[in-house]
Design brief:
The structure holds two protein chains of two kinds.
Chain A: H1 2-13, E1 19-23, H2 32-37, E2 42-44, H3 49-61, E3 65-71, H4 80-88, E4 95-99, H5 117-121, E5 128-130, H6 135-147, E6 152-156, E7 177-180, E8 185-189, H7 193-206, E9 211-215, E10 218-220, H8 224-233, E11 236-239, H9 248-259, E12 266-269, H10 282-288, H11 293-305
Chain B: H1 9-26, H2 32-37, H3 39-49, E1 63-66, H4 72-82, H5 121-134, E2 141-146, H6 147-151, H7 153-164, E3 170-176, H8 185-188, H9 194-200, E4 204-209, H10 213-220, E5 228-233, H11 248-251, H12 256-267
Parallel strand pairs in B: 1-2, 2-3, 3-5, 4-5
Helix pairs in contact in B: 1-3, 1-4, 1-12, 3-4, 3-10, 5-7
Classes of the chains: A alpha/beta, B alpha/beta.
Chain lengths: 314, 269
């Protein structure tokens, strides 16, 4: 996913001299192209995330449009006050990219799990939250980020993006992308875990359960219309490689409650309320947390068994 | 080059001191000691050294970042004395509906960036300095820090970066009054050998009497090829005898007899 993002940033940098790229001493082998094309616009801040974000604010105050790049929670939680006071309070066009959303750095331990990043950031006023799932979505959201008038956080999975069938033509922040139409249950998800959801849909289809799958490309702006439409239509399942609090599940639930809409069935498949303390690959950890395709399918089947489906589906 | 008229900095400092005593009294706010202690630095900057123009956003201006944002009152007073804001607004400081928040606010013409939490200013100033150099512009970026700023790791992150990249258009003035919020710097988190620390981080270092306008100006106008730290030795609360060197007057708002006594001292100076 990050390769797609970097590639698009480099393309945009060719036409926009105001884009500069700061890294917190990370990006080995990933930033070579950017470094060779724009050596004077790549700034290595060293392992100094608070200063990196402070400098990004200073650059943005002077008319630049900086990208800030690191992994896991480093460009966000580590420098949250700079993000809040220097960047968001001043509504500055700074793009904070974090690679390794969720359990992308699984075996490295909880320090490298961006498992509560959205929770920490969703309360920060004025910060857009982009959560792409596919290569196409990351391409378009990078474009949107380049043009975004204020601050934006882009959460990028470390590994391969979810495959897309069919290819999504365009991605607009605030509009979910329909990955799969279906009549029984709507699943809202983001990030590479959408790939697991799509596989779960195949498993469930064999058992006669028809999933609709929506890729939630941004938590803020949030596609409230689609969320409420899904909640009005039937059971809703949220799947996210994030803790129970502060991510999509929280956003969806708050949206429903504020609109007075409650789905007939609801399930939030998340990383729960604790750190992920087990050690293992991303894939293995997903299995432990019930976020692999087989577990997702099983848990949704259980939900459906206990729910009344709308009349038209009986 | 500055196009705003140069001012008599001694007279300006005296006016700034009277303003901040009145403002912190009217607003019932803290930090009068912090403001009085750096009034000479602020007078020299705004009165003579900073390249400033009628338009507070003039692209050729020097950038000034008030990292010790809690002394916002003295900055507002200086901006009023320059004509960027009306003098009549000063007494609304911290008042309901005022644009003059307790910590310096970028809503006010002439303020580059809102600060308040310590440790942010030098990083922002470093980014501005990078921007200026990238564009080949001749203006400077000056940040005024407190000792509290120098407790924050983020300040030293910026110091590392600035010297590594030889940002010679960047100046950090430290208002070094030796007092912090609960006790002296020496008792809290000793900074000495302070100048040596900045030199070890790769900065050019000057040490001056922070109340001597000639020394301040000479240091601030030095041409150096490294980022420059001007350690200004000051007295917190300077100008009002019973506020000097007092942690209490970091917090206390002058009222009643204390207000009268303070203004009397400042008027007769």
């Amino acid at each position: 996913m990050r390769d797609t993002l970097i590639r698009r940033v480099v393309e945009r940098m060719a036409h926009d001299p105001q884009i500069v790229f700061l890294t917190g001493d990370l990006g080995f082998g990933v930033l070579d192209g950017l470094a060779s094309e724009f050596p004077d616009r790549l700034i290595n801040a060293g392992v100094s995330e608070q200063n990196m974000l402070g400098m990004a604010a200073g650059l943005a105050l002077e008319g630049f449009r900086p990208f800030v790049y690191s992994i896991a929670n480093f460009p966000t939680i580590r420098a949250l006050e700079q993000l809040r006071n220097d960047i968001c309070y001043h509504r500055l066009p700074v793009r904070i990219v974090s690679v390794g959303g969720g359990l992308g750095y699984g075996p490295l331990g909880a320090s490298h799990h961006a498992s509560d990043d959205l929770g920490a950031l969703s309360a920060t006023p004025g910060l857009a939250l982009f959560t792409p799932s596919t290569a196409s979505e990351i391409h378009h959201l990078t474009d949107a980020a380049c043009d975004w008038p204020g601050p934006v956080y882009i959460r990028v999975d470390r590994g391969a993006p979810a495959a897309t069938h069919p290819e999504v033509r365009a991605t607009i922040p605030g509009k979910m992308n329909t990955m799969r139409s279906g009549r029984d249950v709507t699943v809202l998800a983001y990030g590479a875990i959408v790939g697991e959801v799509m596989l779960a849909a195949e498993i469930l289809a064999a058992d006669g359960v028809d999933l609709a799958v929506e890729s939630c490309v941004s938590l803020r702006p949030f596609d409230e219309a689609k969320a409420l439409a899904a909640a009005s239509r039937g059971p809703v399942v949220v799947v996210e490689e994030h803790g129970r609090v502060g991510g999509l599940a929280t956003t969806f639930a708050q949206t429903c409650i504020e609109a007075g809409v409650a789905p007939v069935g609801y399930l939030a498949l998340t990383l729960g309320d604790d750190f992920v303390r087990e050690v293992g690959s991303t894939e293995w950890l997903r299995e432990q947390k019930g976020l692999d395709a087989r577990s997702i399918a099983s848990r949704i089947a259980h939900l459906v068994a206990g729910c009344s489906l709308p009349e038209s589906q009986k | 080059m500055r196009s705003l008229p140069v001012q008599d900095t001694s007279a300006l400092a005296a006016r700034l001191r009277r303003h901040v005593v009145e403002m912190t009294s009217a607003g019932g706010s803290s930090h009068v000691g912090s403001c009085l202690g750096c009034a000479d630095i602020v007078a020299v900057l705004y009165g003579r050294v900073l390249s400033l123009h009628a338009d507070p956003q003039d692209p050729e201006r020097d950038r000034f970042v008030m990292s010790k944002g809690h002394a916002g009152a003295v900055i507002y007073a200086a901006l009023a004395e320059l004509g960027y804001i009306g003098v009549e607004t000063l007494l609304t400081h911290c008042g309901d509906g005022s644009m003059l928040s307790g910590h310096v606010s970028s809503e006010v013409p002439g303020v580059e960036v809102s600060t308040g939490a310590l440790g942010h200013g030098l990083g922002i100033a470093t980014g501005m300095s990078l921007a200026g150099r990238h564009r080949g512009l001749g203006h400077r970026v000056i940040a005024l820090l407190s000792e509290g700023d120098c407790d924050e790791g983020s300040t030293w992150e910026a110091a590392l970066f600035a010297s590594h990249h030889r940002l010679s258009n960047l100046v950090a003035i430290v208002d070094y009054n030796k007092l912090q919020s609960l006790a002296s710097v020496e008792e809290t988190l000793a900074l000495e050998p302070f100048g040596d620390k900045w030199r070890a981080f790769g900065w050019e270092v000057s040490e001056v009497d922070g109340h001597d306008h000639a020394e301040l100006e000479a240091a601030l106008l030095m041409e150096v090829d490294l980022p420059h730290c001007v350690i200004a030795h000051t007295v917190k609360g300077r100008g009002v005898s019973f506020m000097e060197n007092s942690v209490l007057w970091h917090y206390r708002s002058p009222q009643g007899d204390e207000l009268e006594a303070a203004l009397l001292e400042l008027t007769t100076q």
